[in-house]
């Protein structure tokens, strides 16, 4: 039976990530626990907090998004060996219930990092609709996720609690600095709209008082003629200079639309995937978010 913590409830293709570059080293007689994460942003947060006091392994290969993941029997074995499993929650990992049950682990703690975070509905006209899961794109909500990871690790492995606390504190400071930078640069554009390929930006938009529009709800949906016409009208009624695409295949219709409207295409990375051969660096989240900020400013005419 899986043990669920108070916060919530691999395969050969997975990228095995050994935590490094943290602020502190594990104390003597502490244990290095086995930490599993669902996908990229949770992996980045967990690695930053765990430091040398944990081995972090991502269930989903870094070049595959949660929408496209297909599990294997080896994934079940990997889950069964983990001490703790961090997930984003909010419907991002619906495939996990079956995998965790199949692992037959009696000690695994599953921690939903979205617990306690204010969410935004996928359909603002329907209060009963599912919450949008992309909370990690708001640096302030990401702080809550990092704190949840820190608290869960400290409870599981008290000998390393100081390591987790110091690492989390440093990462939170960086998130606060990122937030202040984004806030300052986007302040002149408050109330303006931007258009992304799929509905991943409501938390980011809310935080910085922007309006997020999108072509399709999910990245694997093909846009209809109605979707294309709706976005065309939005562009013509605004002074947008670019549409915001994503680093994945399947956006040909979006790119064609930009050409038809005689505006540019810029990249806004939802930080769900990255190349399989990437080299981990604790600045990765911040580098990607600053790239997103630069391209958003381009779209807004900055």
From TrEMBL:
| GO MF entries | metal ion binding
Q: Does the keyword Transport apply?
A: yes
Stored SUPFAM superfamilies: Helical backbone' metal receptor
Q: Name one GO biological process term.
A: metal ion transport
Q: Name one Pfam family in it.
A: ZnuA
**Cited Gene3D superfamilies:** Nitrogenase molybdenum iron protein domain
* InterPro entries found in the cross-reference section: AdhesinB, Bact_metal-bind_prot9, Lipoprotein_PsaA-like, ZnuA-like
Keywords annotated in UniProt: Signal, Transport
**Annotated CDD domains:** AdcA
Q: Which PROSITE patterns match?
A: PROKAR_LIPOPROTEIN
Q: Where is the signal peptide?
A: none
Q: Which family does it belong to?
A: Belongs to the bacterial solute-binding protein 9 family.
Query: What is the name of this protein?
Result: Zinc transport system substrate-binding protein
- Source organism: Parasynechococcus marenigrum (strain WH8102)
């Amino acid at each position: 039976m899986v043990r669920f913590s108070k916060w919530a409830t691999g395969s050969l293709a997975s990228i095995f990530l050994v935590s490094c570059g943290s602020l502190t080293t594990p104390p003597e007689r502490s244990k290095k626990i086995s930490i599993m994460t669902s996908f990229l942003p949770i992996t980045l947060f967990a690695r930053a907090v765990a430091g040398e006091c944990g081995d972090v392994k991502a269930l989903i290969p870094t070049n595959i998004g949660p929408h496209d993941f297909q599990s294997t029997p080896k994934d079940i074995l990997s889950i069964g060996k983990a001490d703790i499993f961090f997930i984003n929650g909010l419907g991002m990992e619906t495939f996990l219930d079956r995998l965790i049950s199949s692992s037959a682990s009696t000690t695994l703690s599953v921690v939903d990092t979205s617990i306690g975070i204010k969410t935004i509905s996928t359909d603002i006209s329907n209060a009963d609709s599912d919450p949008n899961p992309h909370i990690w794109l708001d640096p302030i909500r990401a702080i809550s996720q990092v704190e949840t990871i820190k608290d869960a690790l400290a409870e599981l492995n008290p000998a390393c609690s100081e390591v987790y606390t110091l690492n989390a504190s440093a990462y939170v400071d960086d998130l606060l600095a990122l937030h202040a930078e984004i806030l300052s640069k986007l302040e002149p554009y408050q109330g303006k709209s931007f258009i992304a390929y799929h509905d991943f930006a409501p938390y980011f938009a809310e935080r910085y008082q922007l309006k997020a529009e999108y072509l399709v709800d999910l990245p694997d949906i093909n846009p209809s003629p109605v979707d294309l016409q709706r976005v065309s009208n939005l562009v013509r009624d605004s002074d947008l200079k670019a549409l915001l695409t994503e680093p994945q295949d399947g956006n040909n219709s979006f790119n064609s639309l930009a050409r038809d409207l005689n505006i540019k295409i810029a990249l806004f990375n939802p930080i769900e995937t990255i190349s399989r051969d990437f080299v981990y660096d604790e600045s990765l989240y911040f580098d990607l978010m600053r790239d997103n900020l630069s391209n958003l400013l381009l779209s807004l005419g900055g």
